[in-house]
Amino acid sequence: MLDQWHIPLNKVHVILRDNASNMKKAMDNMGVRSLGCFAHTLQLVVNEGLLPQRSVSDAIAIGRQIVGHFKHSPLAYSRLQDIQLQMQMQPKRLQQDVKTRWNSTYLMIQSLLEQKRVLGAYIADNDLPSTLTANQWALLEKTSIVLAPFEELTRKVSSATASTADVIPAVTVLKRILAKEGDADTGIKTMKKTLLEAVNRRFDSVEDEPLYALATLLDPRYKD
């Protein structure tokens, strides 16, 4: 591609790539500086963090079954829509999570929480493949709060105005949020701990990368 566009290697400052090892090796073989996709790494951290806490992963699995029920049954969705209208709510579909779509688990949880009353009314007269207990609803609410910073940062670094200078401050903020303990952490402590460990491991050398460090130092927003 560089040859086709007549771009000499000495004109290439850095190439943003995905995190696949073959892509990293290709850039190294070309002799050009490269950085892995920060947003993709964030999502890898989230995927790791949701697995170890069995109670959380079970609640998410049930939520996934509920969403799938309405996705695959037009009749069920029609009944759900009728209840939404009866409650004077804007008809809205539940969102299915997809591994390859960033923040999709967070968005699925949000859609379930938004439709909690509607789903409660639906269950009164209709069957679901599975239902969430009061404790599982509470876990989903707490999980949503923990994942919210990841969603916000992913949107921020995916915008047209995103800069390499945002990476180190973003990682620092995430570490502080995840390290902060509170009474509301009951039931999700393992998840938060795993998320923090994943952030520390995947971004352990971020401050040692000159491209990140120089960009942050030269950005007036982070002058102090």
Automatic annotation (TrEMBL):
UniProt signal peptide: none
PANTHER family xrefs: ZINC FINGER BED DOMAIN-CONTAINING PROTEIN 39 (PTHR46481:SF10), ZINC FINGER BED DOMAIN-CONTAINING PROTEIN 4 (PTHR46481)
Keywords, alphabetical: Metal-binding, Nucleus, Zinc, Zinc-finger
Top-level taxon of origin: Eukaryota
Single GO cellular component term: nucleus
High-level lineage: Eukaryota, Metazoa, Chordata, Craniata, Vertebrata
Subcellular location: Nucleus
Name the UniProt record assigns to this protein: Zinc finger BED domain-containing protein 4
An example molecular function term from Gene Ontology annotations: zinc ion binding
Chief location of this protein within or outside the cell: nucleus
Native source organism of the sequence: Cirrhinus mrigala (Mrigala)
